[in-house]
Amino acid sequence: MSMTRLALQNFKASARNYLSLVISLAFTILIFFNFQCVIDSDAFDVLGEKSRQNMDISIQAITVVLICFMAFFIWYSTNVFLTRRKREIGIYVFMGLTNQKIGQLYMMETSLIGLSALALGLGLGMMTSQLFQMILVRLSDLAVEIRFHINPGPVLRVTAIYLSVYFVFVIKGYVNIVRSSVLELVSAGRKNEFVRQPTGLLTVKAVLGAGILSAGYYLALKEGGMEVMNNVLAAVVLVIIGVYLLFGGMIPLLVQGMARQKYFLYRKERTLWVNNIIFRMKRNYRTYAMVTVLMLCSVTALAMGFAMKNRYTEIEHFRATWQYQVLGLKDGLDGDLHGIIEEDNEIVCSSEIPLLVFGENMVETVYTYSSYGALSWSAVRDLAGEAGLEFTIPEPGDDEVVNVTQLPLMSLSTEKSGITVTIDGRDYRQTEETSVPYLGVLQEHISFYMVNDRVYESMRSLGSEAYLYNYRIADPDTFAAGADKLKGLREARPDLYQGCTFANPTVSDMEWIKVLYSICIFMFMVFVLASGSILFMRLYNDAFEDRARYRGLYKIGVDRRVLRRAVAHELLFTYAGPFLVMAVSSWFSVHALGKVMSTDLLIVNIISVLVILVFYVGCYFISLPFYRKNAGIE
Amino acid sequence: MNESKVLEIRNLTKDYGSKGFSTTVLKGIDLSVCRGDFIAIMGPSGSGKTTLLNILSTIDRPTMGSVILDGKEITQIRNRELSKLRRDKIGFVFQDYNLLDTMTLQDNIALPLALNGVSGKECMERSGELARQFGLADHLKKYPYQLSGGQKQRGAACRALVTEPEIVFADEPTGALDSRSSRDLLECLKGVNDSGQATILMVTHDAYSASYAKDVYILNDGLIQCRISRGRDRKEFYDRIIDMQASLGGDFS
C-alpha cells in the first residue's frame, strides 16, 4: 500500500475522532474570513472616508489578534493530533518504517485535517459573510443594504495566512517525529506518567506565577503619565504568563496538597474526583489557561466596545455644545454675528469669552499640543452660567492652572494633576483637568489653561488677546447656510475676525466607533463561545479515557450515582477554575481600560462576567450527560 | 472451621441465545461456600467458569435456580440493592487488576472504604494494615504505573479485602503474573484465608494456583464434575489436580 493511500485510509478511519479538531479549526477560519470580508466590503463606505479608514485600522488590529488566536488553535490541535498519533504510529516501527516515513505519514494525515478544516471554514464563511455584515450594520445602527458578494481577496488572504501558519506546525511535528527515538514512539501509548508532578518544580512555578500575576495586576492599576500605555501592555503580557503559571503551578500544588491530606481526601467520592483532577492537570493546564485568557479577552473586548460607545456619545455631546464659534479681535461683535446667524436659524444659546492665545514655545509641558491659550477663571464661570454647563472648579491660586482640554477617545495618560506647566519661564502646578466643553470644538485645537483673574491680567502681555463668540442653533438642517455666511464675513473683515470653527451636527467622523462597538460585542461572543467549546471538547475527549476506569469501579460495586456525583464535581472544577481566575483578572483589566478611556466600566465588567457565568453554567449542564455517556456511566 | 454458609447455589442454570437457538452454559449447579472456605473452580475453556462467576458476582442473572448470599436471594433483588450488595458483601479481584491509574496505591486500597463513608482515620489504618500483610507497606505512595504486575495484583487483593466482605471472588488472579508473583499473591491470599479474614472463591485454569485452595471443583460441560479436597501436602494436592485434569481431558487454559 502506498503512503498516500495509507494516510487517506487512516484519515477516513479516524475522521470521527478528529471531527472536533476540524470543527474548531473551521470555526476560527470562519471568523477570520468574515472579518476579512468586512475589510473588502463596500457596505461601510457610507461611513465616510475618515471613519472608514479608522474602522479598517481597527479591523486590521483585530485581524492580528485573530491570527494569534488561530496560530494558538492550530498549535493546540496539531499537538493533540501528534500526541494521539504517536501512540498509534509507534506500531509502524515494527513494520520496518523509518522515522522519516512515519513523519511523512503524519504530515499527510495532518495536512488532510488542515485542508478539510480550511474547506469547511471557507465554505461556511462564504455562507455566513452576508449575515455577519448584516448583523454588524444593524448593531451599528447604519442604514445600508448588504449585497451577497464574494471577493477573491479575503479567500486568498485567509488561505495563505492559515496554510502558512498551519504548515509551520505540521513541519514542527514532522521534525519532532524524525527526532524521536524508536523507544519513545513505541512507548508513547503506554506513557502514563503525568500523575503527580514534583512539588519543588510546582512550588517554583507557583511562586513565580503569583509574583508575575501580582506585578501584572499592579501595573494595570498603577496611575501614570505617558508610560501608562506601556504599563498596560506589560500588564497584559504579565497576566497571561501569570495565568499560565497559576494553572501550571499554584493550582496543581493546591490540589496535590489536598490529596496528601488523607483525612480530607477520604470523604465519599472526593477521592475519585480530586485524584482525577490531579491526573489531568499536567496535560490540561494549558487548555485551562488558554480558556481563561480567552474569556479575559472577551470581557475586555466587550468593555472596550462599551467604553468606545460611551466616549462616542460624550464626544458627540461635546461637539454639540456650540455649532458656530467665531474668534474676533475685539469685544462687542455679538450683535452683528447674531444678526447674520438668525437670518437662517434660531439661536438657542450664545456666549462670549475673552481669551489669550500664546505664541510658539511660550508654553512647556509634558504633553505637546499644537497651540496653547489662557482663560480667566471668572470668565469661564460666567460662560458656564450662561450656557448651563457644569462648573465646580475652585479659583486657582497664583501658581496654579486648570487644564481646559478636549475629550479624547482614549487617553495615553491617567495623570491629571501634579503636572508642572511652564509659561514664559514661570512654573505653574496643574491642579485639575476638565473636559467640559466651555469652548466647544476649539478645545480640540487649542489646549487652554484656566488661571485666576490676577494671573490672567499679568499674562495679557504674553499672548494675543481675542474674543470667542459661541452659538448653539435650533435646527441642524440649516447649519450650512449660516456657516457659509460666517466664513464670508471672516474673509471680508480680517481686521475684525481672526477665524471660525464649526461643528456640523449632521456629519461626524466618529461613526466608525459605532461599527467598532458592534465588532467588540461580536468578538465578546466569539471568544466566550470559543472558550466554552474548548472546555467542552476537552471534557468530551477526556471522558473516553474514564470509560475503562469506571467500568472497573462499577464491577467492584461502586454505585453509578457515586460515579455521577464524582463526575459532576470534576466538571464543576473544570469550568469554575478558569471562570474564577478570569473573574478576578477581568476586574484589573477592565479597570485599566476604564482608566485609559476615562470611563467607569464596573457595571460592564459585572454584566459581562455574569453573561459568561450563565453561558458556562449552560455548558456545564450540557457537558454532564455527554461526559457520563462517553465515560459509560449512563 | 465455622460451618455457617456464606453462599449457597441451588440448581443454577444459564441459557444464552433466543428460543430455539439457545445454548445452556450452566446445567444446574449446586454449591455451598462456608465461612473460611477457599475454593478454586477449574474447568476447560467454555465450561462455564466465567458465566458462573458473573452470576455469583451479580453482574449477570441466571435463567433458573437460586443464589443465596449471606441469607439473601440475590437473583431477585433490584439493581440498586445489587450495587449495595456488591459494595458491602463482595470483594473482587480481576485478572487485569482494575486499579485506578489516577490514584496512589493507598488511595486505591482505601477507595471502597472512603466511598462507604468510613472515616479518614479508619481508611488509613485499615489500608495500611492490609498493605503490610501483603508486603506493600513501602509502596503505598506509588502510582500503579510504578508497580510491578504482582504488586498491582496484591494491591487489588487488598482493595477487595479492605471492606471485610463476606466473600472474595477472584477471577484468574494469576492469569497475567509470572510464577514468582503468582506465588507471592497466592501465599498472601492463603494467609488471610487461614487467619479467618476471608472466604475466597477463585476461578482459575492453573493447577498450581488451584493447589493453594482448600477445595477444588472441576467444572465441565456446565456441570460440576468432581470436588477434590486438599490434604496436608500442597504438592500432593497439585498432583491430584493434574491427574484429574488429565482424566477429564479438554483444554484447561
Give an overview in words.
The complex is a heterodimer of chains A (634) and B (253). Chain A is of the alpha+beta class. Among the domains of chain A are: 191 residues, no CATH class; 181 residues, no CATH class. In chain A, strand 6 and strand 7 form a beta hairpin. Chain A is elongated, with a radius of gyration of 32 Å. The model of chain A has no long low-confidence stretch (mean pLDDT 84). In chain B, strands 6-7-8-3-9-10 form a 6-stranded mixed sheet, with helices on both faces. Chain B has a 4-stranded antiparallel sheet with strand order 2-1-4-5, with helices on one face. The interface between A and B is medium-sized, with 30 and 37 residues.
Q: State the name of the first-level CATH class of chain B.
A: Alpha Beta
Order of helices and strands of chain A: HHHHHHHHHHEHEEEHEEEHEHEHEHHH
Number of strands of chain B: 10
Low-confidence stretches of chain B: none
Molecular shape of chain B: globular
Radius of gyration of chain A: 32 Å
Specify which chain pair forms the largest interface.
A-B, 30 and 37 residues
Second-tier CATH architecture of chain B: 3-Layer(aba) Sandwich
Note poorly predicted spans of chain A. none
Could you say which overall geometry of chain A the principal axes of the C-alpha atoms support? elongated
Kindly report how far apart the N and C termini of chain A lie: 41 Å
Q: What is the CATH third-level topology name of chain B?
A: Rossmann fold
Please state the CA-atom Rg of chain B, rounded to the nearest Å: 18 Å
